[in-house]
């Protein structure tokens, strides 16, 4: 359906539960996701303390159509997040093709490459998710990449 915007936090910001809920989720991510996907998306996140906070879990349970709560998400789950197992590597390859002079140039390139990311790549990454989840269950939530070969 498309990609939401990339958002950058100000340097030095302490991302506690309140900041995560009020700024990151309510001001940035959820409005963008809803504008792209309406009510057709699954929201997942890692185990950062601000993500696991009771108020955060309640908020996401109420405001997202399909939220995977922390108790149903494996603790070491980078291999189950399409951005982590597929999309960031494509982004890195494109962003770092040439020297980056400063943080502003890096931000500009990230935004540009994100906008140019082929939706077919994103769809393919998401399409691999069920197979990866099955492998994760088979490996009893341990490392499972070897089961995908």
Task: Summarize the structure in short.
The chain has 149 residues and is mainly α. The chain contains seven helices and no strands.
Q: Would you give an account of this structure?
A:
The chain has 149 residues and is mainly α. It folds into two domains: 1-73, no CATH class; 74-149, Nucleotidyltransferase, domain 5 (2-Layer Sandwich). The protein is 55% helix and 0% strand. It contains seven helices and no strands. The protein has helices spanning 17-37, 49-52, 54-63, 82-95, 103-116, 119-127, 129-138. Helix 4 (82-95) packs antiparallel against helix 6. The mean pLDDT is 89.
Features of the shown structure:
globular; mainly alpha; Nucleotidyltransferase, domain 5; 149 residues
* CATH-derived topology of the largest domain: Nucleotidyltransferase, domain 5
Question: What is the CATH C level class of the largest domain, in words?
Answer: Alpha Beta
Going by CATH, what is the homologous superfamily of the largest domain? Ribonuclease H-like superfamily/Ribonuclease H
- Taken together, the total number of domains comes to 2
CATH architecture of the largest domain: 2-Layer Sandwich
Indicate the structural class.
mainly alpha
Number of strands: 0
Order of secondary-structure elements: HHHHHHH
| Distance linking N and C termini | 29 Å
What is the helix content? 55-70%
Mean pLDDT: 89
* CA gyration radius, whole angstroms: 16 Å
